[in-house]
Design goal:
The structure is a homotetramer. Chain A is α/β, with parallel strands linked by helices. Chain A folds into two domains: 5-170 and 279-309, NAD(P)-binding Rossmann-like Domain (Rossmann fold, 3-Layer(aba) Sandwich), CATH 3.40.50; 175-276, 2-Layer Sandwich (Dihydrodipicolinate Reductase, domain 2). Chain A has helices at 14-29, 65-68, 100-106, 122-135, 151-160, 175-188, 205-212, 214-226, 281-296; strands at 5-10, 39-40, 43-44, 48-55, 91-92, 112-115, 138-141, 164-165, 192-202, 235-237, 241-242, 249-259, 265-275. In chain A, the strands form three sheets. The first copy, chain A, has a six-stranded parallel β-sheet with strand order 5-4-1-6-7-8, sandwiched between helices. In chain A, strands 9, 10, 11, 12 and 13 form a five-stranded mixed β-sheet that branches. In chain A, strand 12 (249-259) and strand 13 (265-275) form a beta hairpin. The radius of gyration of chain A is 20 Å and the shape is globular. At the C-D interface, helix 1, helix 6 and strand 13 of C face helix 1, helix 6 and strand 13 of D. Chains A, B, C, D: Residues 174-276 form the Myo-inositol-1-phosphate synthase GAPDH-like domain.
């Protein structure tokens, strides 16, 4: 029988809440909905165990992980009535490089370090990667901070024989994926794109942060859409709209105008409504299983099978 | 330099109007919009020549093909201001099997016979196939009548060393394709389908015919959607709606409800508006080029590369 | 302090379930959502008391009204955790005219008889009206059977000094109302309607019945839409679609194409999703209060203030 | 027979282009589409004559009005193949208060001065009002600059016996009107608004200007929506999106979530696509006719019938 994966998690936000609860639900019911791969490299969703957790907020540090995930501003809903205690007490995360050694000690025994803290603090992200290196663990970075796409860090993981997966999670099912799939279908069927737009609205704290750093994110969205298209200049992305009434939902409006044979027009309008923070857990659990499998089979550095799950894999610009 | 393909066309409806005009536009401008493959087996869209045409309506027989395509009830719009005469006079089509010999004589010189008459007259379709056989031409059937999927006819073409492509054209971009692509994306990303529906509205004569024979078409649509899905019982297709005000447009409303990680809901609503008869020409011109290429390279019988362009290829039920 | 209205109800379907539960919720919380008039003629929503109830189904007859409303095929959801018993036992309804006298006796003490049985049995509806007449009660008919618009019955109520309100409830908020409001707005702002369509989808038993009697309902919908418009010939209604996956929801797709100044185009697309059976209760509770007020103030016959709430008031064709 | 209205126009943008062309089309065909009132106070749409025009751009000054309206950045399409010359040469507008006297002289003979220059230059707007006063003409301000709602200016027009109509045109059919009508319908039918949002996208120069001054406009939109509602805090307006590919179109996405009886949910989603600059002409032509009628009947100051056509009539905040 396969051994469960031992995971240390950095950051205890909505994504981790979805992940922890989904794993517990899988164990309790044997039948979690919305999973990409029930079994991946022999590992089920329920075969993921948490052995350490780090956060900075006073409300989370010192609590059991199963309680900390419900502390505000987290607002991902309860998926399961009685979530058992995890036995893992959330520790204080590192705030400067002098603490790398302390954290490396606390990571002892973990096979995979999942980095899921808020984006925007590259030095912190890299300090945790350093701690993972010292602790002999694989590192998975689901934030947009440059870790796996930093060639120097990748080289050090490779030399140490440790897997390093990242950066930046794709959503399991979101605007970019749907928009891209439709533009691709158009191209495959020989239609000519006339114009297209995308409007993104959301109500979470995370979304509010995005809005305040809007331009970067919009450029990144545009890159995602038009990577393989000759039509980059025909797709427009409206300013992100932070609408608190949407609460933990995200809404997108997509329009596509195109031409078929002889120029006759085709119009497509789409509204997509998703529940925001749950989008990442189904992808994260796959990255964890890929990282554990690579570690156990001594594949060092990056793992190619992760590419469809990442927005900024190694080789993309920092 | 490659020789142009000589095509005889049976039926002079909206589809053929789109085809004839698009080819002329390609020749005039060198840049037709909405083409799947600019060059296929060395043949451009402008490399298709019409050498014979057959119809039954009094308004069309005796006219030049370039005029006949604008006779009512055809209502595909003009794509090009001055369409040159084709030099091909539309002949009277066959109405019973005794005329096969006469038609075979009139097909002399054609490399490909394109069968594009109204669906629903299998014996007529097969009589034209017989005439093509006798004239030594490849046969392309874009109607839903069983020709290529009739094993006896396929055997005879194979024995005669002639290509036979069919049956029933997929649209270049329509409801089934878009709906299928989205259901497939859902599955690929690990979401669980809760329910889905599709509403189809149209305003053409062809659409009115479909509505009157609605059940068959709806079953066929459902088959198309759920062929590769485990979710056949979750997709519903509303009754077709014939709305004359839509004129030559087709409109579809698609709804998809699904669940991601832990059962959190995802909703997707889509409206698709296409110009009806143009949908077929971009696919037809590919089938013609595939058939000509097969004939010229002495590939007999069916050509596998045609499968993505056909609704009922050989092996499907009659 | 005003006296509560004593109501006898005929039919114990989803509409009556919504009504009974909403009234209980108002009493329990003092704050029912979705009410048109909190107080109407001095009567609150909680001032409606049920004193008798009639049904035919074996599962309902003999039970307390508060239990009978949850018997299948009723499927309106529970609005309130603990619904107190009503003290009213559902009696066997009448099945032929010989029972009018029996029912009239059982109506004794009721001020208002609410007729809410399934539509389509005009003789039964009129027999209950006769029983109400004999019992000295006002009559409210929310079904499409002709009672209030039958001039003979209206004359008898008027002569007896009793109010008679009907026929056929408008929904509180449904496709017809929204579509009509938008067409009206268009006209008011000077736009010219080009074309418009409406698609109606639903998943309830009631909706399935409608689909099977589709033509009448579509004509009635069309009448409702175009009563005051010069544009009757520009609005089209697609065939009703019974889609069981929608369960107790109704969905409508509305499209409007119009022209403003100089003929420049305007397009409007709308999707409306409502929870089906709740639509009637908010209107029914107003009709009950209007009828009680009329009875108490000795206004006989029809009451003009009811007109906006009815599809077929007196004077419309039977 | 009624005398035509003599109008001097300030600003020669898209709105004036739509107006000039629509009037010519009405005269040529007798049947302009999209007009609110065919005849208003005895005046038809064709009864409006231009007698003077003012602009600042070098491309417009010195040209006949019928040519100047097609100079860039104007991009309102041609409604009429051959627009006759107007006989009015566009003059150089005023740039400071010292030119009021010159302009007043050039206004001689005009009954109505239509102020349609770009918004945002209150002093200029008021200088033209001063010139109209001296010339004895009525003044119509369709921009958002404060003229009619400036009590001091209104008093001077009233004392001079001259009509003054403004400020800021409502669109003939736009997002605010449709959104407001639906929120009003909801309230009228007794539903409780849960939340609502509005997204506005556009591609014109005017729209780009709005985006750059976004906050004011959004507040104004919010005010317009919630003036009569108790629900001001439930409506959210997403940031305006300038999407050049939309060219002269405006697109809005509106969502409304509400509750009916007992709290059961109702959802409404709407997409509205309009042709931007034409929205104002149908309203402007009514304001001109109201102003002319008032002048001819010696009604001084504001005219109440204009209120539904204005966003900021007298009494609103400046």
């Amino acid at each position: 029988m396969i051994e469960r994966v031992k995971v240390a998690v950095v950051g205890v936000g909505n994504n981790v809440s979805a992940l922890v609860q989904g794993i517990a639900l899988q164990r309790a019911t044997g039948n979690l909905v919305g999973v990409r791969r029930t079994v991946l490299h022999g590992l089920g969703v329920g075969d993921v165990d948490f052995t350490a957790a780090f956060a900075l907020s006073r409300e989370k540090v010192g609590r059991d992980l199963s309680e900390a995930i419900f502390m505000p501003p987290n607002n991902f809903p309860r998926l399961i009535d009685e979530l058992p205690l995890s036995g893992v007490t959330v520790r204080r995360g590192l705030t400067d490089a002098t603490e790398v050694e302390r954290v490396a000690g606390e990571l002892a025994g973990a096979e995979v370090v999942l980095y899921a803290a808020p984006s925007g603090r590259r030095e912190t992200a890299q300090a945790y990667a350093e701690a993972a290196l010292r602790a002999g663990a694989a590192f998975v970075n689901i934030t947009s901070d440059a870790v796996a796409r930093d060639p120097q860090i990748m080289r050090r993981f490779t030399e140490a024989g440790l897997p390093l997966l990242g950066d930046d999670l794709t959503s399991q099912f979101g605007t970019s994926i749907v928009h891209h799939a439709l533009l691709h279908l158009l191209q495959e069927r020989g239609l000519t794109l006339t114009s297209s737009y995308q409007v993104n609205l959301g109500g979470t704290e995370d979304f509010r942060n995005l809005v305040e750093n809007g331009n970067t994110k919009m450029q990144s969205k545009l890159n995602a859409l038009t990577a393989h298209e000759s039509a980059a200049d025909k797709v427009e992305i409206a300013p992100l709209g932070y609408l608190p009434h949407l609460e933990s939902h995200k809404v997108a409006h997509i329009n596509i105008e195109a031409q078929t044979w002889g120029g006759t027009p085709v119009s497509l309008d789409l509204k997509l409504k998703v529940h925001d923070p749950s989008g990442g857990a189904g992808v994260t659990v796959d990255l964890i299983r890929m990282a554990a499998n690579a570690l156990r089979h001594r594949h060092a550095g990056y793992v190619a099978e992760a590419t469809p799950l990442l927005k900024s894999p190694p080789g993309t610009s920092i």
